[in-house]
């Protein structure tokens, strides 16, 4: 399958999608998701169990193409998608033709009156889902993105979003700040973030950078956020770029903070942390005016304590791929005396 090259000529696309009635609400309704946030969190589930025929409405067709990442018969495409939208999709090379159907090369996540282009995380065909496992995949906004967005501190001034991915956090928060910088280790993420800034008419600067080696911003930021690429440590394949265990992610951020965080500023890191039965879960740094920790044991990104005790992982848990992976995770938690896995939001204030 070819890949999409993020393109800055997406400026008129948002208007066309809105005119087509494709919004966070209509996408959620088409796929029978309770809310737009629920759809983003569980997009693979809704794509797998989507109504057989989404093609009765234009928002349904766009959800079928860009959220379920499913092939659409060419005849339906020609008949039901307005010429102006087809011309835009084709000029931007967002679709490929496959014999008698068309298929998207990108995922398009509508959220809160914005749109986020990213690589597709999965494809659907005949009700089956195939997950993409490319190392430099730029993920659509997902459960951890929403968790951080919903719990981010109300700050002003200069924002630095480390590991910006599709640009979801930087762009969703851009209106609150004087200036916004996003950095990512993955060049495709930087390119997607720039395209999404244009698509949504938001001012933000995105650059390539590695938190672990060379990250520096001038002037330093008042608010640093990092939705870290962390998770349980039971498997070492199929991980996202820059994947780190939670303690390493925290230590790496703390070492870099003097180069990026202004006096009086705050840094917030979201980690998926394994909590040992004994001893500290995270290497908490000293030297900050305040350190605040909040855990989210009810999240779909958690394996709560009662689950570890009972040996059963909730089917809605987003930390495992399938039942074999769930068994492997449970064996790992028991063997390593881990009492729970929780998303943890840590705030460090200068
Ligand atoms: C969990 S994703 C978060 C993406 C986006 N901020 C969001 O919330 O949807 C983590 C991101 O961190 C980036 N990343 C991993 N290691 C990094 C590093 N050392 N320096 C900068 N970015 C890194 C990855 O490429 C990925 O885009």
From TrEMBL:
UniProt entry keywords in alphabetical sequence: Methyltransferase, S-adenosyl-L-methionine, Transferase
Top-level taxon: Bacteria
Molecular function as annotated in GO: methyltransferase activity
Database matches in InterPro entries: SAM-dependent_MTases_sf (IPR029063), Small_mtfrase_dom (IPR007848)
Keyword Iron: no
One GO biological process term: methylation
Membrane-spanning intervals of the chain: none
Calcium found in the keyword field: no
Methyltransferase small domain mapped to chain residues: 144-230
SUPFAM superfamilies in UniProt: S-adenosyl-L-methionine-dependent methyltransferases
Name by which UniProt lists this protein: Methyltransferase
